[in-house]
Specification:
Length: 289
C-alpha cells in the first residue's frame, strides 16, 4: 500500500510565519518539532501549547471536526483532551485551517510497558462511559469507524495479502467468526474514532489525556472498544471490560475491529514503526483471547 504523502512541509519557518501573522503574541515562543504523522505536523509552542497543522487536504476536515466538537465534548470527559485554544485560518502561505492546542506533560502510552497500563484501564473505560452518548444528527460522518464491521472483509483480506503475515489465515478465520456477531441496534453514539495507545497520554502511571479526535464520529461503540486489544494485556482488558460491562455481541465486534485495526496499523512499518508495533501487539492479543 502506498504511504500517504504529505502535500506540504510545515517547517519551523512556516509555523512561525503563521503564528506571527495570526497569533503574534505566540510568535516569539520557542518552537520544537514534535512529529509528523499520516495527517498532521505538530510543533510545540513554548512550554504549554502546540500548533497542529494538516499536511494533506484529506486531513483538513479532521481539524475542523475537532474545532467544532471538542468544546462541546470536553466538559463531559474525565480526562483532558486537546480542545483548541486558538484557531488558524488559511492564508497565502498555508491552505488549510489549523489549531493551537494545549501541550500535555505526558508520554504516549505505547512508550510504557504493557503490563503497567492495567492500572489505568478503568480510567480509560470511564472516558468511554462518559463519551458514548447518543450523538446529534449532524455529528461528523466517518465511513471507516462506527460502521458495521462485517462488510470490511475485502479490504482486510487485501491488506493481509500485502503484508504476508504468517498468521494471516488465523486472523481472517477469527475475524469472520467475530464479525458475525449481531449488529449494533442502538442509537449512534459519540465515538473518539482512533483510541490506540499512541493517542493515550500517561503521566506518573495514570491516564493524563486522550488526544487526536480527528476521526470523531458516531455509530457502533465497538470500534472504540477495539483499544482493549491494541492497548492492554489480558489483565488490563479484564479491568477495562469490567467497568464498561458491554454486551457479548458488542465485545465480539470490538475484537473483530481490533483485528482489523491491528492489520491497518502494520501497513507502513518503515514510516510508522510505532503503529506497526501496536498492530502486532493487537493481533497477538486478539488471537490469544
Amino acid at each position: 500500500m502506498v504511504h500517504p504523502v504529505p502535500e506540504i512541509e510545515v517547517t519551523a519557518d512556516l509555523a512561525r510565519t503563521l503564528l506571527r501573522e495570526q497569533h503574534p503574541d505566540l510568535a516569539d515562543l520557542p518552537l520544537t518539532w514534535a512529529g509528523t504523522g499520516w495527517d498532521n505536523a505538530l510543533w510545540r509552542v513554548g512550554d504549554r501549547l502546540a500548533a497542529r497543522f494538516p499536511v494533506r487536504a484529506v486531513a483538513a476536515p479532521l481539524v475542523d471536526h475537532e474545532q467544532r466538537w471538542l468544546p462541546a465534548l470536553a466538559p463531559l470527559l474525565p480526562v483532558d483532551v486537546p480542545t483548541p485554544v486558538r484557531v488558524g485560518v488559511p492564508s497565502s502561505t498555508y491552505p488549510w485551517t489549523w489549531s493551537v492546542v494545549p501541550w500535555f506533560d505526558a508520554v504516549a502510552a505505547h512508550h510504557t510497558p504493557v503490563a503497567s497500563r492495567s492500572a489505568w484501564a478503568p480510567a480509560l473505560a470511564e472516558v468511554f462511559v462518559a463519551l458514548h452518548l447518543p450523538a446529534p444528527d449532524d455529528a461528523p460522518v466517518n465511513p471507516f469507524r462506527g460502521v458495521p464491521i462485517a462488510p470490511r472483509e475485502r479490504p482486510l483480506r487485501e491488506r493481509l495479502e500485502q503484508l504476508e503475515l504468517p498468521e494471516a489465515d488465523r486472523v481472517l478465520e477469527r475475524w469472520r467468526d467475530l464479525a458475525a456477531a449481531p449488529a449494533w441496534d442502538g442509537p449512534a453514539l459519540w465515538l473518539h474514532g482512533d483510541p490506540h495507545p499512541a493517542n493515550l497520554l500517561v503521566h506518573d502511571g495514570r491516564l493524563r489525556a486522550v488526544i487526536d479526535f480527528g476521526d470523531v464520529t458516531s455509530g457502533d461503540p465497538a470500534s472504540d472498544l477495539s483499544t482493549a486489544w491494541l492497548t492492554f494485556d489480558a489483565d488490563g482488558r479484564d479491568a477495562f471490560r469490567e467497568r464498561l460491562a458491554p454486551d457479548d455481541a458488542t465485545w465480539r465486534r470490538a475484537r473483530a475491529w481490533a483485528l482489523h485495526m491491528a492489520v491497518v496499523l502494520q501497513m507502513h512499518p518503515v514510516d510508522h514503526p510505532t503503529l506497526a508495533e501496536i498492530g502486532r501487539h493487537g493481533i497477538e492479543q486478539a488471537l490469544a483471547d
